[in-house]
């Protein structure tokens, strides 16, 4: 069975975004200039290569996630282009209760129950599934215990308040630490596996 991998940037105090949804406190906020150090860039690119499906919320898709990474993939002078190419080439699965068709390339809609849809995807042949956000979508996946691996990118910032992703967990969700890696940019990547 395929695994669902979460890769998510967080503040030290556990927020995925500021209260207004911004990420100005992140070392790299998915902009044009990749401000992560080369080792962290390589880790990020290697992780996306292990997946051939990217799970998205309708909101992320409509806000331009797919188009952004297609443009980045076409800019081969940018070091993000290899990472972006993996996203462009992966099948995107948009979870929605309001859309009835997809206008995005290489994209399908998942309109049913979250647990049933993700479980069906895990049973398909292929590489892993990966999800990067958004906050409410990731919160729902975590609460439903659908995430198999957590790759938490801890930025060297405390923001005081913001948007949490673990607040919908009802009972203790046990994890096993695979690795903790510090990078020169001040970021630490915590890699956990779901222990349930």
From TrEMBL:
Coiled coil: none
Chain ranges passing through the membrane: 129-147, 172-192
UniProt-listed PANTHER family: 2,5-DIAMINO-6-RIBOSYLAMINO-4(3H)-PYRIMIDINONE 5'-PHOSPHATE REDUCTASE, DIHYDROFOLATE REDUCTASE FAMILY PROTEIN (AFU_ORTHOLOGUE AFUA_8G06820)
Taxon lineage: Bacteria, Pseudomonadati, Bacteroidota, Chitinophagia, Chitinophagales
Protein name: Dihydrofolate reductase family protein
SUPFAM superfamilies given in the database record: Dihydrofolate reductase-like
Statement: the UniProt record of this protein carries the keyword Membrane: yes
InterPro entries: DHFR-like_dom_sf, RibDG_C, Riboflavin_Biosynth_HTPR
Taxonomic superkingdom: Bacteria
The keyword Transmembrane appears for this protein: yes
Keywords: Membrane, Transmembrane, Transmembrane helix
Limits of the Bacterial bifunctional deaminase-reductase C-terminal domain: 2-188
